[in-house]
Amino acid sequence: MMADFKAESLASKIKPRVYSCYRVPVAPEINGDLEKPAWKKAPCSARFVDLVTGQPAFLDTRVAALWDDNYFYLAFWVEEPNIQARLSQRDSFLWLENDVEIFIAGPDCYYELQVNALGTIYEVFYIWQQALRPGSFFDRSEFDLMRREVDILGGFQDNSRYGRHPRGRRWAFMDWDFPGLKWAVKLDGTINNSSDLDRGWTVELAFPWSGLELLAQGRPLPPADGDTWLMNFFRFEALEANGRKIEPSVGWALSPHGVYDSHLPELFSKIVFLKESI
């Protein structure tokens, strides 16, 4: 029988990174090009680290964030000498190849978005089962367990990597789409061509504040000056060596988790929203 995962013990050992998110006076056009003035002025995060050990990743990955009255913006810089992506159908299992991932947490829920170098996305909205009850905040048609495509995330795996989360299981709404989401990818290289050397790829996203209402759960939108949200940012890289695939894929994150598990909101980075403009 597996021992319960002690999230509080990991939280006492791991200090999540803090990122200051500034207001942008002119909304950036979402086209994947991060040479725009807004992203040149935005603070770039520290280099991503190994999800488990916290050691610097051997390929550079960084993220930046901005906001205005209408949107929350994110940008990724992804170093990749051999850009690879073949999954082109929306909601394909992108973590099986190479992707970047965004997790945004609310008090009783969190949202996951994955993007690959083709611009394919995968989305899931998770609600802790104890929070989805008749008459609760989430008691609405879009979370009807009988009519939606729902899975269960339980976290029952090998103790050295995962464990049983103290909050229990999560309903995973597989057919939930973020309303009004904008995203774009730009390549600096040739995709799916191993004969040349690539520089990498960039991702640019815009999340309407109106679509974040479920994650806010009553918090102000846009956030008030100094408000802090829990988010984390990941990259998963499928690697092969000597004819063998390395499993599981290499995982990197802005803030490490100490275990191979990206679904730990209590260990997410802290995004502090500031009214100061860049």
Q: What does this protein structure show overall?
A:
The chain starts with 6 loop residues before the first helix and ends with a strand. With 278 residues, the protein is mainly beta. The chain contains 3 helices and 16 strands. The strands form 2 sheets. Strands 1, 2, 3, 4, 5, 6, 7, 8, 9, 10, 11, 12, 15 and 16 form a 14-stranded mixed sheet that branches. The chain has a single domain, classed as Immunoglobulin-like (Sandwich), CATH 2.60.40. The longest helix has 7 residues, at 7-13. It is globular and about 60 Å long.
Task: Detail the topology: elements first, then pairings.
Elements: H1 7-13, E1 18-23, H2 37-41, E2 49-50, E3 61-67, E4 71-79, E5 99-105, E6 109-115, E7 121-128, E8 150-153, E9 170-173, E10 182-188, E11 200-208, H3 213-216, E12 228-237, E13 240-241, E14 244-245, E15 250-253, E16 269-277
Parallel strand pairs: 1-3, 1-16
Antiparallel strand pairs: 2-15, 3-4, 4-11, 5-6, 5-12, 6-7, 7-9, 8-9, 10-11, 12-15, 12-16, 13-14
List the helices and strands in order: HEHEEEEEEEEEEHEEEEE
Just give the CATH class: Mainly Beta
* CATH topology grouping: Immunoglobulin-like
Rg (CA only): 18 Å
- pLDDT averaged residue by residue: 93
Features:
278 residues, mainly beta, Immunoglobulin-like, 14-stranded mixed β-sheet, two-stranded antiparallel sheet, 3 helices, 35% strand
